[in-house]
Write a structure and sequence with these properties.
Layout (H helix, E strand, L loop, with lengths): L3 H4 L2 H28 L4 E7 L5 H13 L1 E13 L4 H4 L6 H20 L3 E7 L2 H11 L4 E5 L5 H6 L2 H8 L3 E5 L1
Parallel strand pairs: 1-2, 1-4, 2-3, 4-5
Helix pairs in contact: 6-8
């Protein structure tokens, strides 16, 4: 039986790791220099929030505030999934509209708690598609989106965050 040193080529590992380590160090230096100059690249930041995971959404709002430059705009977005007609029939009249209004109120509370002026937007549709549409409409520079640990079905269908990352025309920061 051979030893682990014979099986693993540590020289090859070092050669592969060194460029990555140098690239990370140079990116870190660039970010620190930008912070010293108080210049941030992002003028418009979109923060989609899932109301089922408000704690993660609030953390993303704080993260967006740290990436803002002077005069930046932060947009809080929640997408309410459209209810199929066959299911909406059983809901009380006006229930869907009340849900949208309640969601908007909750987002406004989150925005006020952050201490910054933020735009609040609640839309109806499919989450990833609507996030991308809003990003395009508002000329967003950065999307800060939360992600969860992928379940088995996500490997076949894909999560909302994965679809946004794949199809967005701007930078996407995924927070896990």
């Amino acid at each position: 039986m051979s030893s682990i040193r014979e099986v693993i080529d540590f020289g090859a590992l070092r050669r592969q790791y060194l460029p990555v380590k140098l690239a990370c160090a140079s990116i870190r230096r660039f970010i620190q220099a930008e912070k010293k100059r108080n210049i941030n690249m992002y003028k418009t930041i979109l923060v989609p929030i899932d109301m089922a995971h408000v704690v993660e959404g609030t953390a993303n709002v704080d993260l967006a505030a740290s990436h803002c430059a002077q005069g930046s705009k932060v947009i809080l977005l929640n997408v309410v999934e459209d209810i199929p007609y066959w299911a909406a029939i059983d809901l009380p009249a006006g229930q869907f509209e009340k849900s949208v209004e309640l969601t908007k109120t909750e987002l406004e509370v989150i925005a006020k708690a952050s201490g910054m002026h933020m735009d609040v937007d609640v839309r109806v549709g499919h989450s990833y598609d609507t996030i991308l549409k809003v990003a395009k409409e508002k000329n967003v520079d950065l999307i800060i989106i939360a992600s969860h640990r992928p379940g088995f079905q996500d490997y076949f269908l894909g999560s909302t965050a994965a679809k946004v990352v794949r199809h967005a025309n701007c930078s996407v920061l995924v927070v896990r």
